[in-house]
Amino acid sequence: MTRQDILDELKKVLAPYTNDKTLLEGVNEQTDLLKDLKINSANLVDIIIDAESKYNIEIDYDAAEKMTTVANCIDVIQERMAQ
Amino acid sequence: MNKRVVITGMGVVSPNGVGIPAFLEALQAGKSGIEFVPLYEELKFSCHVAGRPDFVWEELQGNYISDVTFYGLKGTNIGYGIRAALDAWRDAGLSTDNDEPLWHAGLVFGNSTADTEAMRNVITRVDNKEAKKLGSRVVEQTMNSGVSAYISGRLGLGNRIITNSSACATGSQAILMAYEYIKNGYATTMLTGSCEHVDTYVYGAFDSMRVLSRKFNNEPERASRPMSLTAGGFVPGSGAGAMVLEELETALARGATIYAEVLGGATNNGGQRQGGTMTAANPQGVIRCINDALTSSNVQADQVDLISGHLTATYADKAELNYWATALNRRGDNYPYVNSLKSMIGHCLSAAGSIESVAAVLQLKEQFIHPNINLEDIDPGVTEIAGIEKIPVTTLKKDINIVAKANFGFGDVNACLLFSKYK
């Protein structure tokens, strides 16, 4: 999967946790989940669980802590999928 | 401080009507909300019927809670509570979009068990060594104060926020506490009420106690029969009731519509002594509670026009009517009118007191007495206490000024409220 493929899929994972759906249109690798998408920090846990199930991977606590921007999310997902 | 307290908004999720207009119509028509539930037959319960609100879950999304909050909300009791509470708040003409906390406005909202279906998900996951997959939304929905947390967060309520739990007395007790906070000057506005979702696990436990109706499984609408000879146990119900209480001056200053006034009330416990047990009321406790409520409200026993009874359709109905007779010193033709909303919607447990209070206030506002349905075979023991014409089986148009609403719950806990027409 290319980074763009993952980004497109990731948008679907993020959608239920974003009240203002228009914010999703501008998602790129620099997008910060909390600041730009106004996602509640508690929901990061749910996003990780959803990502685990979507990509059939396991994301440990240390990796999860890095997942604050879209680029970081893609890094972690790509890395885990390669394992 | 001794403020007057009035009701300026109401909301309801009842088995026979969701929303005040539908509920009022159902009360006046004597409409049953009891239905057959195939699952209960499959599960080999002895009672196969229940009072379940015709609730459209998706309607919560957007109008009541944000998309994100809606996504992942599983607690049915919480959904009922949010809907009733926000409807009451809007009915009172209050804003649901507040940037700053409303420091003058608080909440007392009652609840029984948090959703046990949600809890089952926790148990299964944990037992399967999958605790990590539970996610962030489980704690808030399995905690008993979940419903209060959702409502207060949605509206930005900043005064005291309390979740009470006292079995069948929960709803009346919540309203009493909210009333007392305003009366004593702690808040000017209190949103109050209670909710209940009788899921299969809670239902099964009551079924096992053999206190549920089981002889009318094929005729659901006839299954809830308070005060009748064939009353054979209660029918569980689910739902929520809510009201906005306001200090009179505050309500008048903003030109609010006033439904009725809360004159006062009392709550106590029979101590599980003198015949009182976990499940049966100490007669002295009940009588004291009613008398204390009258004293607190400055109401004479002969001024009570209508008793909105607890009256669940068990052997306790006759005892309850007798307690009222003793407390008010009124019998036979001198007895106040008495009705049981449970004949239409069953026993909504923690939500009973709030839904029945909403019904009591609507009867005051609209000047009618709703019927006791399914009372074609009234128990002669009942009419020895209260004159038969005091137990209406059709809707009566009546000038009523004061309604006493009481609930009596497990743990020998009692609560009684007195509502009056606002003058």
Automatic annotation (TrEMBL), chain A:
This is Acyl carrier protein. InterPro entries: ACP-like_sf. Gene3D superfamilies: ACP-like. It comes from the Bacteria.
TrEMBL record, chain B:
GO terms for cellular component: cytosol. PROSITE patterns: KS3_2. The keyword Translocase does not apply. InterPro entries: Beta-ketoacyl_synthase, Ketoacyl_synth_C, Ketoacyl_synth_N, PKS_Beta-ketoAc_synthase_dom, Thiolase-like. The keyword Cytoplasm applies. It is found in: Cytoplasm. One of its GO terms (molecular function) is 3-oxoacyl-[acyl-carrier-protein] synthase activity. It catalyses: a fatty acyl-[ACP] + malonyl-[ACP] + H(+) = a 3-oxoacyl-[ACP] + holo-[ACP] + CO2; (3Z)-decenoyl-[ACP] + malonyl-[ACP] + H(+) = 3-oxo-(5Z)-dodecenoyl-[ACP] + holo-[ACP] + CO2. It holds the Pfam family Ketoacyl-synt_C. It is an enzyme of class 2 (transferase). Keywords: Acyltransferase, Cytoplasm, Transferase. One of its GO terms (biological process) is fatty acid biosynthetic process. Residues 2-421 form the Ketosynthase family 3 (KS3) domain. Its EC number is 2.3.1.41. CDD domains: KAS_I_II. Homodimer. Belongs to the thiolase-like superfamily. Beta-ketoacyl-ACP synthases family. This is 3-oxoacyl-[acyl-carrier-protein] synthase 1. It comes from Mucilaginibacter yixingensis. The lineage of its organism: Bacteria, Pseudomonadati, Bacteroidota, Sphingobacteriia, Sphingobacteriales.
